[in-house]
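Hi all, posting the design record for the shared folder.

TITLE: backbone redesign
STEP: 1 of 1
STRUCTURE INPUT:
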């Protein structure tokens, strides 16, 4: 796989003894769930996101958070939480979203890994539902949920739903990612085995990891709203450079999906159409950014 950063070599195989503040003073082995969060200039939403973790009815978790060189008050907000389950690493410079996710994954110790972005929210019963699902079925490597999309003010926009079972989900891979990243929980051992997040993707790293896990185990979606995903527009994500990178990621990820072995004929046909569409979009974004030679090459040769 292109550019995969292997995280397995950086992980300790020994079990760490930690204190669980929700079990009195007794010593316990590593938490059942490691939550990964990367933070970059998330001041308006970080407190709400962290509070949604602290309020979970499932208490046996750790948060591995990478403060990725923010220039706002994100670091101060993070330090204001005294919960000892929150384990923060503060970086002086932004190393990139994908690299920060891999760093967080390398610091995790639990059987299961959950994702929560710094501007999203987990419903109070999310971890309970997903932990029970993974514990009850060893063939499932990753589980997500439906998600409530909200705007910058927290107002409801719409609900993203998806099919529940693996085969239906795989067919959808042909044209879209049915998972919201902040809704997923997966088996850490599988994520490590497939190489973690691929650093060649700046925006589609979540879809890439889901695809790799789906090639080794079943993936499912719990048909309940267990997270809120915040839709935010910013000058950074809408810049010409970001548009080109997003378009490139989508084009390459859908080209990869054509090799997915579990797709039926209809899904493969839909995937070929999606490749064509994302190829045109990629070419147009290159042209708009002034990269005419590369745009023509993508349009002509792919």
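Okay, here is what came back for every position:
SEQUENCE:
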């Amino acid at each position: 796989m292109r550019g995969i950063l292997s995280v397995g070599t950086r992980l300790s195989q020994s079990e760490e003894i930690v204190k669980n503040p929700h079990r009195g003073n007794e010593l316990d082995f590593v938490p059942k769930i490691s939550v990964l969060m990367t933070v970059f200039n998330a001041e308006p939403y970080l407190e709400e996101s962290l509070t949604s973790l602290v309020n979970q009815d499932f208490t046996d978790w750790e948060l591995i958070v990478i403060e990725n060189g923010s220039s706002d008050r994100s670091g101060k907000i993070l330090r204001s939480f005294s919960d000892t389950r929150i384990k923060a690493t503060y970086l002086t410079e932004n190393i990139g979203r994908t690299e920060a996710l891999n760093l967080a994954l390398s610091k995790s110790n639990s059987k299961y890994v959950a994702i929560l972005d710094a501007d999203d929210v987990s419903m109070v019963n999310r971890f309970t539902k997903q932990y029970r699902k993974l514990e009850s079925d060893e063939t499932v490597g990753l589980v997500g949920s439906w998600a409530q999309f909200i705007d910058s003010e927290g107002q409801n926009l719409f609900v993203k739903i998806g099919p529940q079972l693996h085969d239906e989900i795989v067919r959808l891979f042909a044209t879209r990612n049915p998972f919201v990243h902040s809704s997923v929980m997966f088996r850490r051992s599988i994520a490590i085995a497939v190489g973690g997040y691929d650093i060649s993707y700046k925006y589609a790293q979540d879809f890439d990891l889901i695809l790799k896990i789906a090639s080794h185990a079943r993936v499912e979606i719990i048909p309940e709203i267990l997270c809120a995903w915040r839709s935010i527009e910013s000058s950074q994500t809408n810049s010409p450079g970001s548009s080109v990178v997003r378009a490139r990621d989508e084009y390459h990820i859908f080209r990869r999906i054509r090799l997915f072995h579990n797709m039926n004929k209809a899904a493969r046909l839909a995937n070929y159409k999606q490749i064509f569409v994302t190829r045109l979009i990629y070419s147009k974004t290159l042209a708009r950014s002034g990269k005419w030679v590369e745009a023509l090459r993508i349009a002509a040769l792919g």
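COMMENT: The longest strand covers residues 218-230.
Let me know if anyone wants the other runs.
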